Amino acid sequence: MLATRNFGNLIRAAGATRLKHTLPELPYEYSALEPVISREIMSLHHSKHHATYINNLNAAEEKLVQAQTKGDIDTVISLAPALKFNGGGHINHTIFWQNLSPKSSKPSDVLIKAIEKDFGSLENMKNQLAAASVGVQGSGWGWLGYNKQMKKLQIATCQNQDPLQATTGLVPLFGIDVWEHAYYLQYKNVRADYVKAIFDVANWQDISARYENASK
Q: Which reaction is the catalytic activity of this chain (predicted)?
């Protein structure tokens, strides 16, 4: 009985000291990606949409700690969708902001070799990633990821805010957000134009670093 009480106290203490997730600062101004992505879209996307995922994730985690403390398994299970959706939204957008840059860049030699091995050329990879992203039904993401087991690059899509690695096992390298809030104010319903343009602000330095870390 004493051990059970002590365990409960440990869970409560962990919940009390848990650091809340916070909105990451962008490494550039909201207007920096114009004309590809407008200042208005970037401001709303970052300060409103991403912030909402974080707030909801923090709330869900608070409820999770409370449920675990009480041994309320039904509530623990019921929180899984909120944790996945909002946790995925936070993970995906944190990567997305870093994947973009107003500064022109090129893939590293190491990444180019991998792209050429797995896709034939950089243009082929871009075309396949663009097609997959445009083809997402409803809301979701298109991804260039790395398969650690097969040691190869792969293209994948995820619905809603499903996080790539937790969903498919692929390490995320470059994500394209195709939720309408990412482009509609500027590109209306022409998702293909947005997807094509986003390669102009791709941060290949960041993408290359993610590949090199994943492939170690």
A: 2 superoxide + 2 H(+) = H2O2 + O2
